Amino acid sequence: MADILMVLISTTLILMIYTILYRENPAFRFGEHLLVGATVGHAIVYGVFQVRDLAWRKLQTGILTGDLVGIAYIIPIILGVLIYFQFSSKYRYISRVSIALMLAVGLSLSIRGLMSVNVIGQIKGAVNPITNIEGLVYMIGVICVLLYFVYEKRASDIVGPLPKIGRYLLMLTMGAYFANSIMGRLSIVIGTLNELLVAPAWYLIPVALLIVVADAMIRRKSV
Q1: Which residues contact 34 (CB under 8 A, 6 or more apart)?
Q2: CB 3.0–4.6 Å: which of 52, 67, 155, 166 could bond 148 by disulfide?
Q3: What pLDDT does residue 1 have?
Q4: What was the pLDDT predicted at 186?
Q5: How confident is the model at residue 156 (pLDDT cuts 50, 70, 90)?
Q6: Judging by beta carbons within 10 Å of its beta carbon (0-12, 13-18, 19+), is residue 157 exposed, middle or buried?
Q7: Which DSSP state fits 66?
Q8: What is the structure's pLDDT at 157?
Q9: DSSP letters along 117-159, please?
Q10: Cβ-proximal residues to 216 (8 Å cutoff; 6+ apart), any chain
Q11: pTM of the full predicted structure?
């Protein structure tokens, strides 16, 4: 009984979200607000548990055992508390210390990852020995894209259509990325449809259609 109730609730929420295909309506807004509220609530609870498990408990253990590594967790706890001075107009400048450190660490980690993967990794892939047709196509693609990006006007007089080929390769790559993102979204849609088109979930579909038709007729008469 509990499983059937959960299926009916999830189906109702899915149909409420899909009503945006008809028009903006209170059912969609309720489902939207419920989704946002549940997401924010989950993030807050998850953050509290993260602070408890990753910082507070380790600090307590360090204090009880005399471990300096555990006691050092007082530093990120203090920095986290300092961020809340952002809500004070008088002492807001104190929060800049934590925000600056957080941004600096995040940027440094991101730059290191980007450099190793997108720059160094690409260079290593481009200079590998050509042992098959894939390596040859990869090398030609890298050269054409670099000519288009860096030396388009000057290279066009020397190498002819290679910069234009680089442009087409970029368009194909961006199209592939876009298609991949669309496929990911479609997989979500297919998953929801698989949940809708099984009993007892699909019993709610005619009910939703009748409500939409009734709303459309009422709006037509009022106009």
Answers
A1: 13
A2: 166
A3: 66
A4: 86
A5: low
A6: exposed
A7: T
A8: 64
A9: IIIIHHHHHHSS---SHHHHHHHHHHHHHHHHHHSHHHHHHHH
A10: 22
A11: 0.62
pLDDT, greater one: 195 or 62: 62
Please give the single-letter amino acid code of residue 137: V
SS3 130: coil
d(CA 80, CA 88): 15
On whether the CB atoms of residues 92 and 85 are closer than 8 A, the answer is: yes
The pLDDT of residue 41 = 94
pLDDT of residue 151: 65
List C-alpha distances in Å: 129 to 37, 118, 120.
54, 19, 16
Query: For residue 191, which amino acid is it?
Result: G
Tokens of 211: 């409500």
The contacts of residue 101 (CB under 8 Å, 6+ apart) are: 79
Under a CB-based contact definition with an 8 Å cutoff, are residues 196 and 17 in contact? no
pLDDT band for position 100 (50/70/90)? very high
Polymer length in residues for the chain: 223
Banded model confidence at residue 223, pLDDT cuts 50, 70, 90: low
Backbone angles phi, psi at 155, to 5 degrees: -75, -25
Number of other residues whose CB lies within 10 A of the CB of residue 8: 14
Residue labelled with tokens 């990006």: 149
